[in-house]
Amino acid sequence: xxSVVVPTYNERDxxxxxxxxxxxxxxxxxxxxxxxxDSSPDGTALETERLALEHPxxxxxxxxxxxxxxxxxxxxxxxxxxxxxxxDADLQHPPxxxxxxxxxxxxxxxxxxxxxxxMGGASITGWSMWRKVISSSATLAARALLPEVRRVRxxxxxxxxxxxxxxxxxxxxxxxxxxxxxxxxxxxxxxVCEVPYSFGARGRGKSKLDVRVAIDYLxxxxxxxxxxxxxxxxxxxxxxxxxxxxxxxxxxxxxxxMAAAVAIEVSVxxxxxxxxxxxxSDSRSGRFGGRLARYHxxxxxxxxxxxxxxxxxYWTLLPSSLLxxxxxxxxxxxxxYLLSSSMVWKPGSVVEYKLM
Length: 356
Ligand code: GDD
Ligand code: MN
What we know:
By secondary structure, this protein is of the alpha/beta class. It folds into 2 domains: 2-224, Spore Coat Polysaccharide Biosynthesis Protein SpsA, Chain A; 227-343, no CATH class. Helix content is 52%, strand content 12%. It has helices at 12-25, 44-51, 68-78, 98-106, 129-145, 179-186, 211-251, 256-279, 288-315, 321-344, and strands at residues 2-8, 31-37, 57-61, 83-86, 112-116, 123-124, 160-163, 192-196, 198-199. The strands form 2 sheets. It has a 7-stranded mixed sheet, with helices on both faces. A two-stranded parallel sheet has the order 6-9. Helix 1 links the parallel strand 1 (2-8) and strand 2 (31-37). The longest helix has 41 residues, at 211-251.
């Protein structure tokens, strides 16, 4: 069964069209619509109760406005479906896409299916220049700070589906507006797919996105990216350690080929120790030695690139030990980036599905 979770705040004039379009698009499926309303002053809940006479609706009314994120989390909690879809009530998310999202989960082997505004075949209408700039910057910031969300091009989408048994919601902080961000960061193993759609203009009523939501988003991003920031600090200090070790070894008269290798290994041990004790202190598994070996394996390509570039440069164009090493570090970083972005964090794939 499919549960469509819809958070609402002052959407009275949209809810009927929304429910009717969901129902016709899901005719022939087993589904329910879970509406989580925060006691909207415009009477959204009353209108929903009327609709519930003719449609499979579960209505949850919360006493006061508690935010979009927590509405989604609570709605998913009372939903009975094996597949959950989250969508907005204002018709910017076309209900006609529902069978496709559902199909990607059921037939396409996806754990999470994201309806995307930011890929070939997608479009956005009805947004001001200003709103477009804000949204692109917010997307860029999320992708830059959170490696786990680089799997999708539209990690801020409010329209997505997931398999309940494969995706954990319990560790989610319901504070954020962007639930998908939380889902992607806390379900790193999930297989994510993305499908393009046309994000339309709002139906009736006003957007609830305001300065408070923007501040909430920034707070959410900071909280989720603490790990990335720690990793960056460690990496930065590792560069200093690497160059410092090289300089000391060279003053002792050790040749570049030898000193470069030792300096690289010293920095690897330095980075590993801090990442193990600090950045990833909450997710250590197995023995120390095992983790150390895996770390070497995971960074091997980058380390070899670093060493090769450093030594070759030193022999040919750049007879300065430290500069050659620095260029090597940058090259190693680039190699790591290219490898991880193509092998580890591939952007979501679009999976075709058969119409039922
Ligand atoms: N229950 C509840 N409580 N619902 C809320 C609240 C709240 O405090 N705030 C907003 N909603 C509901 C709205 O009624 C609507 O159905 C949905 O959440 C999205 O709100 P909009 O006000 O339409 O958001 P938007 O169109 O500006 O933002 C969209 O784009 C964002 C990315 O740019 C949404 O799809 C967001 O989810 C998305 O992150
Ligand atoms: Mn909207």
